[in-house]
UniProtKB/TrEMBL annotation, chains A, B:
SUPFAM superfamilies: GroES-like, NAD(P)-binding Rossmann-fold domains. InterPro entries: ADH-like_C, ADH-like_N, ADH_Zn_CS, ER, GroES-like_sf, NAD(P)-bd_dom_sf. It comes from Streptomyces pseudovenezuelae. This is Zinc-dependent alcohol dehydrogenase family protein. Residues 7-336 form the Enoyl reductase (ER) domain. Its cofactor is Zn(2+). PANTHER family: DEHYDROGENASE, ZINC-CONTAINING, PUTATIVE (AFU_ORTHOLOGUE AFUA_2G02810)-RELATED (PTHR42813:SF2), ZINC-TYPE ALCOHOL DEHYDROGENASE-LIKE (PTHR42813). It comes from the Bacteria. CDD domains: FDH_like_ADH3.
Length: 338, 338
């Protein structure tokens, strides 16, 4: 089969590789229908994360079950499935608490930018769609594997409730998904912080009510102007830098909440600053498994269309170009078709 | 009148001072019935906070209203009242959200370790008891002015719910009050981290179900043993050091919450560590005003008896000895009687 291998920073190749097989009775093998490039894949691509040896990259996927191990009982060959980027048993105390990315038996999914992918602990990880989806739903279903679920978690961690005022820091695919989540969870005012015209447009289409182009102290001042002088109820931090975290914390009102899903790059949070802010803070790898049944239904119902974050769609063999376009910010997010 | 003045680190004197007067139409003057020494008073006493010039110290108080300004309408002379250590208008957006210590017009109360004290924005700050309290209720009512309200906030910020498992880090007066709060809010298992026998005893009396004497990694391991291997639902961090914050964060389960009320001394929180913990974190100066009506009723009903945290009671004139006993850890908390 064809699989995407990262050899070194900037060196992405689609190569022939052996098809994955069932290695544990809890595994499933999926024929990938669509996969995509994640912002976090760029950490390796940009040399931020070291690459000890070439490896099969990719962790977002939708596809059709090809084969299951003898202990798999919740999905069967032929079903269309979506799974999280982290495999989880969905039965341990952390899974039952809704934090499947902290599963006591969590395993990272890799090798998804390929024609077939092996998914460990399939019963806990995969969710079948109610029926075979129409072609047009595929991109949106694919986002549920990571990016839309991550935006959803940001909104939940930020405790958005009906009537809330929300700020979304970051206009990448996760931030834009966060706008969708904020809208679905009932936020009345959704302030998207963005400087890119195409992303502003998509944010507005997804439900943003205001765009703030300022950053830093000016950005905070602008948010306060829009929020009764005190700041927002909920802030979704979808970037992961020291600056974006401060932007997030300072944009929330006392008693408000920041959900942070941007992977923190050297971020330190000052205890006194957090203390005096009265802001609640929760982050982490999104437990997207927890949201799959609900979000699949919202996609099937046509309520949400997060697939629009894909502004580039390429055959799998052109994965290298997909990475390059995202790295150069020519694309928000690249979908790959095996 | 007699008032407690701090002149320099370690130099506490009770001196003659002019009685406070109404300076704004929203002020009240209270005849102090009881006051006390706060752990935070020790920061000045120990030279951690600079003392630019001698000042009238003290911010915890109960007493009888002596005089009110022309615009005060919710309390009247002769009423027994309790107020927060931070004066608040109780009408601004932050107050209405339940965060009176972030009131847009907040003022610090000082000079309470004295026979009389002036309270600004009295309507928003003071709450009258339903009747004149019996003498035996005075110590418990006094704790509502700060320390019991602070333990309550820690428990609320840690989102204790009926059936929760809670860990209390810190066995000072706030930590012990946190045990009471955890119990009242329905925690089923309350793990007090304490190495002092007398404080362990009080913690057990207040509702703790387990005592953990270990600290650091050993302390975390012990907590996990007691909590299904994953950590506690709720952690009350009542110390404020880097070590106690880490203890708190590592003792909470993924999806759990840490409420931190120990004033952070140079504490830095690592963004990645918080990210991977999936723990929610909220701290701050407790909005004790918010809890006064409820907590007053619990004291009057005999449900809670937080006054037991006072293990030393002295006449106001012996305030210096009261500070010394707390500084030397001979006393948990000192009550002063004008």
């Amino acid at each position: 089969m064809r699989a995407t291998i990262i050899h070194a920073p900037g060196d992405i190749r689609v190569e022939n590789a052996p098809e994955p097989t069932i290695t544990a009775p809890t595994d499933a093998v999926i024929r990938t229908v669509a996969t995509c490039v994640c912002g976090s894949d760029l950490w390796s691509y940009r040399g931020v994360l070291p690459i000890a040896e070439p490896w099969a990259i990719g962790h977002e996927y939708v596809g059709v079950v090809e084969e299951v191990g003898s202990e798999v009982s919740t999905v069967r060959p032929g079903q269309f499935v979506i799974g999280s980027f982290v495999a989880s048993d969905n039965t341990c105390p952390n899974c039952r608490a809704g934090y499947q990315t902290s599963c006591l038996h969590a395993q990272q999914v890799n090798g998804a930018q390929a024609e077939y992918v092996r998914i460990p602990i399939a019963d806990g990880t995969l969710v079948a769609t109610p029926e075979q989806p129409d072609e047009e739903l595929i991109p949106s279903l694919l986002t549920l594997s990571d990016v839309m679920g991550t935006g959803w978690y940001a909104a939940r961690a930020a405790e958005i409730r009906p009537g809330s005022t929300a700020v979304v820091v970051g206009d990448g695919a996760v931030g834009l998904s966060g706008v969708i989540a904020a809208k679905e969870l009932g936020a009345e005012r959704i302030i998207a912080m963005s400087r890119h015209e195409s992303r502003q447009k998509l944010a507005l289409e997804f439900g943003a009510t205001d765009i703030v182009t300022e950053r830093g102290e000016e950005g905070v001042a602008r948010v306060k102007e829009l929020t009764n002088g005190v700041g927002a109820d909920s802030v979704l931090e979808c970037v992961g830098t020291q600056e974006s975290m401060r932007q997030g914390l300072q944009s929330a009102r006392p008693g408000g909440n920041v959900g942070f899903v941007g992977f923190p790059h050297g971020t330190q949070i000052d205890g006194q600053e957090l203390f005096f802010s009265h802001v609640g803070l929760r982050g982490g790898l999104a437990p997207v498994r927890s949201y799959l049944p609900d979000l699949i239904q919202r996609v099937f119902d046509g309520r949400i269309n997060p697939g629009k974050v894909f502004d580039l769609s390429l055959p799998l063999d052109q994965a290298a170009e997909g990475y390059k376009a995202m790295d150069q910010r020519r694309a928000i997010k690249t979908l790959l078709r095996p």
